[in-house]
């Protein structure tokens, strides 16, 4: 069977991986379809869910996929779980490509939490004007906080439920230090809430928070699946793929 690659995408790493292997292997990228105008990778693209692990396994067989790279968002735990189960059930090699998480630097005031719910529980004791950058699907966790004003940044317009005191900023990264400093000052932000997504696309807010002395509530990312090979960079993923293609 000729090598055929599925890239489970939606991230900058997934797009760069598709570009890196273009012309070297038959491939298809899959996007969840959660944003209205996603950035598309090169090559063939499918958009939409698979219907859980069984649906993904059936699709893998039908499409004659021989290798999988899960380059989905670090917080897309359900998609990764489906990929692991489908790969195990079909015997198809799977690599999880995850950019490293962020690490605090001198001068940072980070408050780590395990979940969005914990972040919401702690938030009123930290600040009252919050810059919320955890994604529109996270907003229900904060709906009960009537004494906190939120500036919520999102690619697409969020749907209820969401906090009563909230302004929505529709925007897509990458962002700059200067832009984030202006935003935080203009809205009198006194706390930032974010997920540990890692990467450089949205990290400028952390630099700005450090310069302004603002606390940052950081939700820890899910752990990688046990027993599955992982890569931290696109180059590492390409090396893994080259090893399979050469067999």
UniProtKB/TrEMBL annotation:
Membrane-spanning ranges: none
Oxidoreductase as UniProt keyword: yes
Pathway where this protein functions: Cofactor biosynthesis; adenosylcobalamin biosynthesis
Protein's UniProt name: Precorrin-6A reductase
Keywords: Cobalamin biosynthesis, Oxidoreductase
GO biological processes: cobalamin biosynthetic process
This protein's record includes keyword Oxidoreductase: yes
NCBIfam families associated with the record: precor6x_red, PRK08057.1-2
A GO MF term: precorrin-6A reductase activity
Taxonomic source organism: Acrocarpospora pleiomorpha
């Amino acid at each position: 069977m000729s090598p055929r690659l599925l890239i489970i995408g939606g991230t900058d790493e997934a797009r760069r991986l598709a570009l890196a292997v273009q012309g070297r292997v038959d491939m298809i990228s899959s996007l969840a379809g959660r944003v209205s105008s996603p950035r598309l990778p090169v090559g063939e693209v499918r958009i939409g869910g698979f219907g859980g692990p069984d649906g993904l396994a059936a699709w893998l067989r039908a499409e004659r996929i021989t290798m999988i790279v899960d380059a989905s968002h670090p917080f897309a735990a359900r998609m990764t779980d489906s990929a692991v189960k489908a790969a195990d059930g079909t015997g198809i090699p799977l690599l999880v490509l995850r950019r490293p998480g962020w690490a605090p630097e001198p001068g940072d005031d980070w408050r780590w939490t395990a979940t969005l719910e914990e972040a919401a529980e702690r938030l009123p004791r930290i600040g009252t004007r919050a810059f919320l950058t955890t994604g529109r699907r996270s907003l229900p966790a904060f709906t009960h906080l009537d004494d906190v004003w939120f500036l919520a940044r999102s690619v697409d317009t969020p749907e209820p439920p969401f906090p009563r005191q909230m302004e929505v900023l529709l925007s897509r990264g990458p962002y700059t230090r200067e832009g984030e400093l202006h935003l935080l000052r203009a809205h009198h932000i006194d706390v930032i809430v974010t997920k540990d997504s890692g990467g450089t696309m949205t990290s400028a807010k952390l630099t700005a928070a450090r310069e302004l002395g603002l606390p940052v509530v950081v939700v820890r990312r899910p752990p990688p699946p046990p027993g599955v090979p992982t890569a931290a960079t696109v180059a590492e993923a390409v090396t893994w793929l080259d090893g399979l293609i050469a067999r």
